[in-house]
Design goal:
This protein is α/β, with parallel strands linked by helices. The chain contains 17 helices and eight strands. It folds into two domains: 183 residues, Rossmann fold, CATH 3.40.50.11890; 223 residues, 3-Layer(aba) Sandwich (Rossmann fold), CATH 3.40.50.11900. The mean pLDDT is 92.
């Protein structure tokens, strides 16, 4: 099977919807970071939409592929998992999942990857000049990359990160990054501009620094940051690592959180529960995050799964070494012991009282850690964990009402422990 015709009009509607959400946020005169987020998403889709007519190369990539290389070489990035999920939500999840099923993709496969495959089959994705995929977070991406390269008949590069963070592993990954640069040079016919890459890496350094500031501010009691901000920050990072827009967005959130913390103001009038959460929240439950915050006084103070990338030191004069450190800061495909230590440390530092594990049924890596983390939190920090069986994108697996009932029961348990 090959994709010969693509329907890029699907991108038009996404831009319109995201821009409409940004305008609505501005009209509500809330914090500017809220409208900035949707502006960023709209701009990312707009760049993909106009790449061809502007004579720019378009590279589709999976999670945590270093977009710094792409920005330095004036290549337009298309983050597959994140942007395809947004497209499917705008155009209809049911149609996308039906296309995946008709294409032979079983429901046990991660819904994030099924949405990528479905939209590729339908020809809804713009035809990229190349694909780059990696095993840094998810081993399923190896198969997704192989499939898309064959489907679109395009060149591809697989970025292989070793299991262990040691000297041989780091050197191996640096060589992989060098090979990725050679691949992009061959694709575009241009050499890497290393001075430009250093400028891009300075943006990465600044965004990482501001991200850490925000994490430190979140230790305040009551919590000064709303529940949805972190998922917005992570998606923006996956789309725009190395871009100045990411720095500006993070600074807006930092200033908003800092002002609240300095005034001693919490995001809710009465904070009742301080929670850790694990893994990505299902996209269809974003409104429930607001309900947790506003109706129950439950604030999310840290997300250990989503933040470890910021622990790697960034030196703009040493881009390859810095990106290697960033890659090895991720715990999803390495030994679990350091991550357990991080979780216990953050539970104490952020004064968490409970934890929620979003157990995405299609994720083999993260679900395999549930029992270990749950036991460690209870035994070493005295914190109970609620495990919510769900699907990252498919709302038919567990409804918002079902999840809300589970949360109410958990909050009752936390009340009894006080």
């Amino acid at each position: 099977m090959k994709v010969d015709i693509t329907d890029t009009t699907k991108l038009d509607k996404v831009v319109q919807v995201m821009q409409g959400l940004a305008e609505r946020r501005r009209a509500q005169r809330g914090p500017k970071a809220g409208s900035m987020y949707y502006d960023l998403i709209a701009d990312c889709f707009r760049r993909v939409q106009t790449a061809r007519e502007e004579g720019r190369y378009l590279v589709a990539h999976t999670i945590f592929v270093p977009t710094e290389f792409l920005f330095a070489m004036d290549i337009v990035p298309f983050y597959l998992e994140g942007m395809c999920e947004i497209m499917a939500r705008v155009h209809g999840l049911e149609e996308a999942f039906s296309a995946a099923k008709a294409g032979g993709f079983a429901s046990e496969i991660c819904s994030g990857h099924r949405l990528v495959d479905a939209q590729a089959i339908r020809g809804w994705l713009p035809r990229p000049d190349a694909f780059v995929w990696s095993n840094q977070v998810c081993d399923l991406t190896t198969k997704t990359g192989d499939y898309l390269v064959k489907l679109y008949n395009r060149p591809g590069f697989y970025l292989d990160r070793p299991y262990r963070n040691n000297a041989p592993g780091v050197q191996y990954f640096i060589r992989e990054l060098e090979e990725l640069i050679h691949f992009l040079e061959d694709l575009t016919g241009r050499k890497m501009d290393w001075d430009r890459l250093s400028e891009v890496m300075e943006n990465t350094r600044r965004s990482t620094e501001v991200f850490r500031e925000i994490c430190e501010l979140r230790k305040a009691v009551p919590s000064p940051m709303r529940n949805q901000h972190m998922i917005e920050m992570i998606l923006a990072q996956l789309l725009l690592s190395g871009a100045p827009e990411l720095v500006t967005f993070y600074e807006a959130i930092r200033d908003e959180v800092k002002e609240a913390a300095e005034k001693g103001e919490g995001i809710v009038p009465q904070e009742r529960y301080r929670l850790l959460t694990f893994f990505f929240y299902p996209a269809y439950l974003w409104k429930l995050l607001d309900a947790m915050q506003n109706e129950y006084g439950a604030v999310i103070v840290a997300e250990p799964h989503l933040s470890p990338w910021c622990e790697g030191e960034v030196d703009p004069t040493k881009p390859l070494e810095s990106l290697a450190r960033k890659a090895f800061a991720l715990y999803d495909t390495g030994p679990l012991e350091p991550f357990v230590d991080k979780v216990i440390r953050e539970a104490r530092e952020y004064k968490a009282e409970g934890a929620i594990y979003w157990a995405h049924i299609g994720c083999r890596q993260t679900c395999a850690t549930i029992r270990i983390l749950k036991d460690a939190l209870l035994e070493k920090a005295g914190i109970p964990t609620l495990v919510i069986d769900c699907d990252l994108a498919d709302p038919t697996y567990s409804s918002g009402e079902q999840v809300k009932d589970r949360l109410e029961e958990f909050f009752e348990l936390l009340d009894e422990r006080k």
